[in-house]
Design a protein that fits this description.
The protein is mainly β. Helix content is about 5%, strand content about 40%. This is Zinc-ribbon 15 domain-containing protein.
Length: about 110
Amino acid sequence: MFFFFIGGVNQQVRQVLKSGVGRCIGCGSRSDLVEYEKVLNLFFIPIKRWPGKEPVMYCDDCKLFFPQSISPPPPPPSVEETRLPSVTDVLKCHYCSREVDADFRFCPFCGSAL
């Protein structure tokens, strides 16, 4: 006598608590805070369901469940943050607050180092 078990346990979203609150750790797309439940399937028929312990993050694109404690990667820096000052920028003297060309190493008005 042989017995084959064709089934398994998987997770399913029960309720979306907050939509788009984080980023997926797998693909980087938006993820939702959800309540989930575990489902026991036998021959692809749900037999038993029981709720998960605490809310988790869920990515709808790659179908990944992950805990809230894993923080998503930080967003990339904006263009303004990555821009380096150019040589043609106008400088201001720290002492007299006058505008000085970037070519000067000393303020021509008060003589202080720039």
